[in-house]
Every structure is written in structure tokens, then in C-alpha cells.
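User: Can you predict the 3D structure for this chain?
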Amino acid sequence: MASASLLKSSPVLDKSEWVKGQTLRQPSVSVVRCLPNAPSPLTIRAGSYADELVKTAGLVPLVGSNNESWCQGLDGLASRTAAYYQQGARFAKWRTVVSIPNGPTELAVKEAAWGLARYAAISQDNGLVPIVEPEILLDGEHGIERNFEVAQKVWAEVFFYLAENNVLFEGILLKPSMVTPGAECKERNTPQQIADYTLKLLQRRVPPAVPGIMASVITNNKFLSGGQSEVEATLNLNAMNQSPNPWHVSFSYARALQNTCLKTWGGRPENVKAAQEALLIRAKANSLAQLGKYTGEGESEEAKKGMFVKGYVY
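Assistant: Here is the predicted structure, written as C-alpha cells:
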């Protein structure tokens, strides 16, 4: 799914205000993710993050499959990405998902890979760095070996079609899910086992030219959390960075950074400071994990709770 968030009703930054290479630490500019089917024009907000988020779902039923989905949104993407670039955006993100309990069918895998490749080619053609996000959903009772088997096939198809579409591998960021057992699998794996499988998948499937992998998936690799608990996602990231590998493995979490923060806040002004502190704790924990120095000590019970939601859509 091309899950996306755009900042609404905000002043557009003048191009002269854009500083090449500025990082997300700059307080004056918020993160913008360009989405398929997003309303136009895109606006980038200078200042607060408090604008209402507009969410656009891209997943629709894939006719002819085993109750699987495909991600719509390629129509008009070229003109939208060109407009996004003119207004200051430099990255785009497209998420598509593969369901193991529903197959995955050959049709669903190829559709996911082709859509990601076309999106990446169009984004690069208009000056944006495409974040390529093939996610293997946690839904199911399957073990880690099955996830590994499916992920190998999905990633192989993704990189094949990226090459077929003349995508510059040095100019993409890969944001995959980690290799884990299904959420309903009775056999659980240790962080070290998850790290071993995930790093083996990277070594077998990712071309050396790919400079970034965002999760939550070569110098900088980032992974999505995919419904793991905050602590699980951090422990698994930490284990990958304690294992020998040629990359810097980092994170691009949503729920695994925000869950405790949002629950602490609860929409109440008096809870803002406590929520900010909760977010800082998670940010520090994952900062340590991407250095292989996270211990898990002192984590709250809330951070240890799983966040998997069966059939989760966003």
C-alpha cells in the first residue's frame, strides 16, 4: 500500500529556503512522504508538526488472486512527483504488502514488484529518491523459515523489475520488514536468530550498489517494525548491529517509535511533556541499537507489548 501522510493547509516553502543536504534534525521543516493518490498540490510545512495528517490508502483487491491486494496510484504519478520536487520534496515512499497466509500467489508477488519498480523509476525521473518498501506481513502461523523463503522470492522479483525499469540502484532506499515468524506462530525466535536470517537475506538478495535500506531494508540499511513491540524491534535491530555485516543497519519505525508516546499523550495538553519524554526514550533506545549498544534495561511494560493487529491496514 502506498500509505502516506501529507501535511495539510500549510505554507509552501520557497525554493531559496531549501538547504541541500539538511537533515531531519532541522526544526524548521517537517518530514514529507509523497504518496500515490495524494491530493495536489503538495505543501510542506515550515514550523509545527501539528497539522492534520491526510492518509490515502492505495491497497485494493487484486482480481484473480487468493484474496490478495495490489497498490494502485501509478496514474498521474509523474506529474505529481514533478510538482512535489518543485515544492522542495526530495524523497517519496511507496509501501506494498505480501501476505503469506494468502499464498502469496505468483500474481500478487509480480504485481507488488512491478508496482514498486514503476514507482521508483518515475520518482527518480522527477528528481526524487524513492523509498522502496516491500513488506511481508506478520499475519499468519508460519515459522521464520517460511518468511525467509517468501522474502527471498519477493526481493528477487523487486530487484529484477527495478533493473528492467532502469532504476538507478545507487539512488534508492530499501525499507523492508525483518525476517520473523508469523505473529501467531507458536515457536518464537531470539533476536539473534532474527538478525541472522535478516542479514542472510540482505547478503543473498541486495545488489552492492544499493546504498540504503530503511526498518523498518549498502552502507545504511533501515528496517520497518511491522507490528513488533517497541522492545522487540529494538532488540532485533541491536542484534543485527552486533553481528558481522558490511552495512550500517538502522531503522525507519512508525508504530515502534510512536506507540507509547501516543498512549501517554492521549490527546491531553497536560500530557505533552510526558509524551515527549516517552518518544525521546524510544529514539535514544534505537539510536543505541543502530550502534549495537542497546541493553533493553529499564524498558516500560507498555514498550514490551506487541502491536500486531490481524489484517492491519493503514
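Residues 1-57, 214-221 have pLDDT under 50 and may be disordered. The longest strand covers residues 91-98.
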